[in-house]
Design a protein that fits this description.
about 400 residues; alpha/beta; Spore Coat Polysaccharide Biosynthesis Protein SpsA, Chain A; 60s Ribosomal Protein L30, Chain: A; 2 domains; eight-stranded mixed beta sheet; five-stranded mixed beta sheet; 12 helices; about 30% helix
């Protein structure tokens, strides 16, 4: 995939996701943005919330200089602008991110915390809509609790909650205005990007926030996030089957791994029978038809195409429905070539394409004891199974489709 951004189109919107923090209140060996959440990292879930929204044209992540390997592992297969290194503070990181986007023609920018993985389409829509009328906008929730001010462990005052709001992200701005504000107030430690905007004398509109759009700060927050994923979660199971006959060639491709062999497999694409079956299993789990509907064999653009593109597309459709790939399994049926020497490489490749842990992938090989077309050595068949958890977040609605 390639970014949709066209520098000549000033209507376009970029998202800057800030993931350069250390999260000292979180604890553990990993920064919170790289912590596992339902089989994926927090950062990957956050990024995907914007990649599946049709109103967003590009996404860039600001990362800590020490986190390059963690970042690349968390975002493998995603269509992102190259990351940019952050600074000593969040404010420095946002400024550096904004400066890296200068000259790319973006008119609007949404700035979002990497540790808010449950931002939904309605929240994003609200900010984008407000930016058609205002130079800045942020989602927020009205304060409902009684507020107390304390000194020396004792209450000294009750604070009126009238007109008080809890700010969230993404905070959206006219790109040129927020960049100028960050450069003007560089070095001043302000609480969020909207405060810089306010200091510059610009107005920020309030749009509807959401209780699920909370920031993961502590281990307790991560536990809350895990519970939220399981809230009203629906488990779906999909199956797939495919078969391809042999033809002249010197290798076969199975599970994305090229295996030297005395024959090849006949097909419009690379004829990766295993990935085709697995693609169908994922599509079936979410009720999205089959591989032939999405990638018709009559379409010349898919001639010789690598089947990892088909599987990645199915995985993105799962995530667009707020889904998690729980586990997948593939059984390859043939007399030859032998599957077992390549199983680890196959599992690793499938995990890379799907963006899940290798431990969630199973690959097996079997024969039909000389029976049928596979037993006669006429071709290879594969069957696959995929388990998907679809989490219905409160107040969320499906992402737009192009």
């Amino acid at each position: 995939m390639t970014q949709k951004h066209n520098p000549q189109d000033s209507r376009q919107t970029v998202v800057l996701i800030v993931a350069a923090g250390r999260g000292r209140r979180f604890g553990g060996s990993l920064p919170k943005q790289y912590a596992p959440l339902g089989g994926e990292t927090v950062l990957r879930r956050t990024v995907q919330a914007f990649l599946t929204h049709s109103g967003i044209d590009a996404v860039r992540v600001v990362i800590h200089p020490d986190d390059a390997d963690l970042y690349h592992a968390a975002t493998v297969g995603l269509d992102l602008l190259a990351p940019v290194l952050g600074g000593a503070t969040r404010q420095d990181s946002v400024r550096l991110g904004l400066e890296s986007l200068q000259g790319l023609g973006f008119a609007r920018v949404l700035i979002h915390d990497a540790a808010r993985p449950f931002v939904n389409v309605a929240v994003i829509d609200g900010v984008l809509d407000a930016l058609t009328r205002h130079a800045g906008a942020l989602p927020a929730l009205a304060v409902a609790d009684t507020l107390k001010r304390a000194q020396n462990g004792e209450i000294s005052d009750t604070v009126s909650r009238e007109a008080l709001w809890r700010a969230q992200t993404p905070q959206g701005f006219v790109f040129a205005d927020i960049l100028a504000a960050h450069q003007r107030f560089q070095g001043e430690q302000l609480t969020d990007d909207a405060q810089l905007f306010e200091r510059a004398g610009l107005k920020v509109a309030i749009t509807p926030g959401h209780e699920d759009n909370f920031k993961i700060t502590t281990e307790e927050d991560l536990m809350r996030a895990e519970r939220l994923l399981n809230l009203n979660a629906e488990t779906r199971i999909g199956t797939g089957f495919d078969a391809h006959r042999f033809e002249a060639g010197d290798h076969v491709t199975l599970c994305g791994v090229k295996i030297p062999f005395s024959q090849g497999l006949k097909g419009h694409s690379d004829a990766d029978v295993a990935l085709h079956a697995l693609t169908d299993a994922l599509l079936g789990a979410i009720g999205q038809g089959d591989i032939g509907q999405h990638f018709p064999p009559t379409d010349p653009q898919w001639k010789g195409a690598s089947s990892d593109r088909f599987l990645a597309h199915a995985a993105n459709l799962v995530r667009a429905q707020s889904g998690t790939i729980v586990n997948v399994g593939v059984t390859i049926i043939c007399e030859a070539p032998r599957v077992s020497p390549h199983k680890d490489a196959m599992r690793t490749r499938i995990a890379e394409i799907l963006g899940i842990a290798v431990g969630r992938v199973s690959v097996k090989g079997t024969t039909t004891e000389g029976m049928g077309f596979t037993g006669r050595g006429e071709g290879i068949a594969a069957q696959a199974l995929a388990t998907v958890a679809l989490a219905t977040l409160r107040g969320a609605r499906p992402a737009h489709s192009d």
